[in-house]
Write a structure and sequence with these properties.
Strand content: 5-15%
Number of strands: 15
Distance between the termini: 28 Å
Shape: globular
Length: 433
């Protein structure tokens, strides 16, 4: 396939090769990213993208869908088995669309929802006024405690009693601690609310038993299928069986048309991978690596929000370092360490500048890195932040990072094959300086 692309469109082929090399030669600490397997890539890049399969298994609007029916049924079976769920809808194109479908299925416009504040660790779809969620529904935001930087469950309870929401959303994108879904269930029951858990970040940790399973407590569980789950970019909804018809109708025809069947096939492959003992060991190592990276950073004088981590991510407060999140992000990128700026709780800076950076260990754990490499990475981060204005120092660290990455190759055969094709067809593959 790459040979055909290289022959027809060498410009795009060259950029794909460069990006493949960039991923292989840098340390990816973005908590919401991961590297999918060749098996998942194979399903996602298959001829399954050729077919319109609008509808659901055995109820399609186009002929020729018999194999697609079997693929989707198998994917649903695997998802339900993996998470002990009663029903799964795998057609949402993203985690955001999964959240939208749950809202459409369970609420009327203008209903009250409670969700975690965006600047405290929540997601855009948890009520940001710039997002559809904040435009279509009345959101009441809960936050973390200013002193502990942990979710204040008594505040959640107090707000729920005051505002009587129709739906409570638990889950976050920047929360380094385990969330007690049973506490949220108790609060929801007390005020007669439905409970939705957005497990997008921790789905893999939940599938492997490293974290509490929200399906035992929530009416709805939404998720993306990448991040710690290590599947293709996409979304899914798990729910009680009693919500099946409303959830399915909210996704199609309520929200979107034909599903991306090549992506659903890739989700099925990822679910099979996530059911293995190897994946359980992998997720346990994600958490070990996160704890080691967190403690190593603390030993080097960094303050971590909430004092550490229970999961795959951590949030560094850079206030005492007199550097902003965007400055740190750019300096680290120059040194081959990929992160993202992020607001810290009660941040006085906006999200484009931010007072911190978010780090995560899923992608580097996929490459096989362990605790020893976390010490090395912490050293590199410390040196970059301390010498962020020194271009020579950053270049030297970049070389160290490249050497580290060589010991944990990524898509090695793919890169070699793509280079061979490019050379055969005379495509210039000189890297950006």
């Amino acid at each position: 396939m790459f040979r055909d692309l290289c022959s027809f469109d060498p410009d795009i082929a060259q950029l794909i090769l460069k990006e493949t090399e960039r991923q292989a030669e840098t340390v990816n600490l973005i908590a919401s990213e991961n590297f999918i397997s060749e098996a998942v890539l194979g399903a996602q890049g298959s001829i399954l993208s050729n077919k319109y399969a609008e509808g659901y298994p055995h109820d399609r609007y186009y002929a020729g869908c018999s194999y697609y029916d079997e693929i989707e049924k198998e994917a649903i079976k695997r998802a339900c088995g993996l998470f002990s769920a009663e029903h799964a809808n795998l057609q949402p194109h993203s985690g955001s669309q999964a959240n939208m479908a749950v809202y459409f299925a369970s609420l009327s416009y203008g209903d009250t929802i409670m969700g975690m504040s965006l600047n405290q660790g929540g997601h855009l779809t948890h009520g940001s006024p710039r997002n559809f969620s904040g435009k279509l529904y009345r959101f009441v935001s809960y936050s973390v405690n200013r002193e502990t930087e942990l979710i204040d469950y008594e505040e959640v309870r107090s707000l729920a009693r005051e505002h009587r929401p129709r739906l409570i959303v638990a889950g976050a994108t920047v929360y380094p601690r385990e969330i007690d879904f049973s506490r949220f269930r108790e609060i929801a029951d007390e005020v007669g609310a439905l409970l939705m858990v957005d497990m997008a970040h921790i789905a893999g940790l939940i599938a492997s038993g490293v974290h509490m399973n929200p399906c035992r407590h929530a009416d709805f569980v939404s998720s993306s299928t990448h991040k710690t789950l290590r599947g293709p970019r996409g979304g899914m909804i798990l729910s009680k069986a009693s919500w099946k018809k409303k959830i399915d109708a909210a996704v199609f025809p309520g929200l979107q048309g034909g599903p991306l069947m090549h992506v659903i096939a890739a989700k099925a492959v990822a679910f099979k991978e996530a059911a293995t003992g190897e994946f359980r060991s992998y997720c346990a190592q994600i958490v070990k690596n996160a704890k080691k990276l967190a403690s190593s950073l603390q030993e080097r004088g960094f303050r971590l929000v909430s004092g550490g981590t229970d999961n795959h991510l951590m949030l560094i407060d850079l206030t005492s370092k007199k550097v902003t999140g965007i400055e740190a992000q750019e300096a680290l990128q120059d040194a081959g360490i990929i992160t993202n700026r992020n607001c810290i709780p009660f941040d006085s800076l906006g999200p484009k500048t931010a007072g911190g950076i978010r780090l995560g260990t899923p992608a580097i754990t996929t490459r096989g890195m362990k605790e020893e490499e976390m010490e090395f990475i912490a050293d590199c981060i410390y040196e970059v932040i301390e010498k962020r204005g020194d271009e020579a120092a950053k270049a030297a660290i970049r070389e160290k990072v490249r050497e580290l990455c060589k010991g944990f190759p990524l898509y090695e055969e793919k890169i070699l094959a793509q280079k061979v094709v490019c050379e055969e067809q005379g495509v210039v593959t000189q890297k950006k300086a």
